[in-house]
């Protein structure tokens, strides 16, 4: 059926019911993409830690059958030059429903467009969910890092990441600029002969399905507020519209009412009385440092969400420990927030925490919460015992600096 993907002989597919709930067999086949750069270091460690947690939680009753699928540089070695994202990788991610990936390289300023973004777009994984919480013992630049406890909902299918742009001085950009000036009356392109042009689509449908997920998450997880983060003062019909459509959806679908005359809103008490508010993105970036406790679930557009993810990760110790998930209504692809960190590739040095915590999210997603709990507890114990990789060790005194794989081994040892 597949050209290069070997489906394990043992194991079954996860199935999806009509209401999008999952039917998870005891031996699910879970596809994984190893990832470029530090993917070779962190992905095997993640698999070992996950296997240990499952064994500790369920003995022989449950087990994941891992199935390698390919994207990025490894894909070009397996499938041939220039095959960065094979069709069968997308098919397998869809068919097996839940998967996990390492980071993939994207060249800057030319070359291929992001495979990470392509994967999200082609599978319509419109939610990028990135929880940010503090683990006791992790070094942080903040005095009270535990006050940062936020869930980032980053819109994953629209915005500038749709990749609609034209290179300066190309035939296409000349056409686009001509159209803007002659047909649309645009007068504000400062240097029309040497501009590249990028276009940013933000739709009502895309915003509504996304904000709906964020509010529902807040209700289901008993969170206090949902903040729409935007730059709507400048980009009125994209980011400003995101705010407008977001509030309107809170009112029409969740019965939110204006709070003190608005624009903030409040959901009915039957839905937890959650506050729906908004903040302009630049102000948000200073407030998360000064008053992080005022923010809880954060719903924002693609580019803002990318910046905010790394900024918030830094507040609780850095992107070595920042997990994430990409979700459609059906398919889920889990991945760390960080990239391929090329200077550390293959050195067995980096922190595998982000991808391990992404796998923890994956276990919870499939309902294996006992195994997920074991991962959280063993990570807490490992860090509290001062056993950390270089990124934390360089900010700590008396830490025991270990390699990427030894961090995973320590986690497995602390698992009970
Ligand atoms: N989802 C994805 O697959 C993503 C892919 N990328 C891609 O990755 C490539 C490299 O991007 P870059 O901007 O360097 O960002 P990276 O996130 O790869 O790395 C930036 C820095 O973050 C720190 N870091 C990253 N991962 C870890 C880890 N696991 N443990 C400890 N520290 C870590 C390192 O800091 P220090 O040097 O201080 O030790 C590293 O130099 C690019 O091609 C980019 O497009 C980027 C983000 C996401
Ligand atoms: O696709 C990439 O190369 C970068 C993506 C990214 O930074 C992210 O998703 O956080
Ligand atoms: Mg990023």
UniProtKB/TrEMBL annotation:
Binding site for NADP(+): 105, 338-344, 351, 390, 394
Modified residues (N6-succinyllysine): 101, 243
Residues at the site labelled Critical for catalysis: 161, 231
Record protein name field: Isocitrate dehydrogenase [NADP]
Database matches in Gene3D superfamilies: Isopropylmalate Dehydrogenase (3.40.718.10)
Keyword Metal-binding: yes
Cofactor(s), names only, from the UniProt record: Mg(2+); Mn(2+)
Domain Isopropylmalate dehydrogenase-like: 29-411
Catalytic reactions of this protein: D-threo-isocitrate + NADP(+) = 2-oxoglutarate + CO2 + NADPH
Organism: Nitrosomonas ureae
Binding locations of Mg(2+): 306
GO MF annotations, alphabetized: isocitrate dehydrogenase (NADP+) activity; magnesium ion binding; NAD binding
Assembly and interaction partners: Homodimer.
Family per record: Belongs to the isocitrate and isopropylmalate dehydrogenases family.
Record-listed Phosphoserine modification sites: 114
Top EC category: oxidoreductase
Cofactor note: Binds 1 Mg(2+) or Mn(2+) ion per subunit.
InterPro entries in UniProt: IsoCit/isopropylmalate_DH_CS (IPR019818), Isocitrate_DH_NADP_dimer_prok (IPR004439), IsoPropMal-DH-like_dom (IPR024084)
Domain of life: Bacteria
Keyword Metal-binding: yes
Chain positions with N6-acetyllysine modification: 143
Keywords, alphabetical: Glyoxylate bypass, Magnesium, Manganese, Metal-binding, NADP, Oxidoreductase, Tricarboxylic acid cycle
Enzyme Commission identifier(s): 1.1.1.42
One Pfam family cited in the UniProt record for this chain: Iso_dh
Entry binding sites for D-threo-isocitrate: 114, 116, 120, 130, 154
GO BP terms in the entry: glyoxylate cycle; tricarboxylic acid cycle
């Amino acid at each position: 059926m597949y050209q290069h993907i070997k489906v394990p002989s043992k194991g079954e597919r996860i199935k999806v019911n009509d209401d999008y709930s999952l039917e998870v067999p005891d031996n699910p086949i879970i596809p994984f993409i190893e990832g470029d750069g530090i993917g070779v270091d962190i992905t095997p460690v993640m698999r070992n830690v996950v296997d240990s947690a499952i064994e500790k939680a369920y003995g022989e009753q449950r087990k994941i059958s891992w199935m390698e699928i390919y994207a990025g540089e490894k894909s070009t070695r397996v499938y041939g030059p220039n095959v960065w994202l094979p069709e069968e990788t997308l098919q397998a991610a869809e068919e097996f429903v839940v998967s996990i990936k390492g980071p993939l390289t994207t060249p800057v300023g030319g070359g291929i467009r992001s495979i990470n973004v392509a994967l999200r777009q082609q599978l319509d994984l419109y939610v990028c969910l990135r929880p940010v919480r503090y683990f006791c013992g992790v070094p942080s630049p903040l005095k009270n890092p535990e006050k940062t406890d936020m869930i980032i909902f980053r819109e994953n299918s629209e915005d500038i990441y749709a990749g609609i742009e034209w290179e300066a001085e190309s035939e296409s950009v000349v056409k686009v600029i001509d159209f803007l000036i002659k047909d649309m009356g645009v007068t504000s392109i400062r240097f029309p002969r040497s501009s590249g042009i990028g276009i940013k689509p933000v739709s009502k449908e895309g915003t509504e399905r996304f904000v709906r997920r964020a509010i529902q998450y807040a209700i289901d997880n008993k969170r206090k507020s949902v903040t729409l983060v935007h730059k709507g003062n400048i980009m009125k019909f994209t980011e400003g519209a995101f705010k407008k459509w977001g509030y309107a959806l809170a009112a029409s679908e969740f019965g939110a009412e204006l709070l003190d005359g608005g624009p903030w809103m409040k959901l009915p008490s039957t839905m937890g009385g959650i506050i729906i508010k908004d903040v302009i993105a630049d102000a948000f970036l200073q407030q998360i440092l000064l008053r992080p406790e005022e923010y809880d679930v954060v719903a924002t557009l693609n580019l803002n969400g990318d910046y905010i993810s790394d900024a918030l990760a830094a507040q609780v110790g850095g992107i070595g420990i920042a997990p994430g998930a990409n979700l459609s209504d059906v398919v889920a692809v889990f991945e760390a927030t960080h990239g391929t960190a090329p200077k550390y590739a293959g050195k067995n040095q980096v922190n595998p925490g982000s991808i391990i915590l992404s796998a923890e999210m994956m276990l919870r997603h499939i309902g294996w919460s006992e195994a997920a709990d074991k991962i959280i507890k063993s990570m807490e114990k490992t860090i509290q015992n001062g056993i950390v990789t270089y990124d934390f060790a360089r900010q700590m005194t008396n830490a025991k600096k270990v390699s990427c794989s030894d961090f995973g081994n320590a986690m497995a040892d602390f698992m009970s």
